[in-house]
Amino acid sequence: MAGEPQDDCLFCKIVGGHVPATIVRETDTTVAFRDINPQAPTHVLVIPKAHYPDAAALAAGDPTLAADVLREAQSVADEDKLESYRIVFNTGPGAGQTVFHAHAHILGGRGMQWPPG
């Protein structure tokens, strides 16, 4: 069921404190932590504590929670003093999503190329 923790989800395990992560911010509804394979000097993931498989499901199921994720993305950028940064939501395996729990990648601290990927 959407929103409920999933036993086989890595990010649900991080939310539950069962898998360690370098947490940089936490609110009642979100957790932000450093990516274990950073692609930029700042590479932080912001996830909702509730499980939604991807950004589309999150937006449809709980728009307020989706907005919380975006607000926390801005807070991460502010804390890392980023003037420019990229927010990436990969949705589906063809887009590079490998953990099927909605999450935003906050990337900054270096120039970004366009188009990405």
UniProtKB/TrEMBL annotation:
GO terms for molecular function: catalytic activity. The active site is at 103 (tele-amp-histidine intermediate). Pfam families: HIT. InterPro entries: Histidine_triad_HIT, HIT-like, HIT-like_sf. A motif (Histidine triad motif) lies at residues 101-105. It comes from the Bacteria. Residues 10-117 form the HIT domain. This is Histidine triad nucleotide-binding protein. It comes from Streptomyces ferrugineus. The lineage of its organism: Bacteria, Bacillati, Actinomycetota, Actinomycetes, Kitasatosporales.
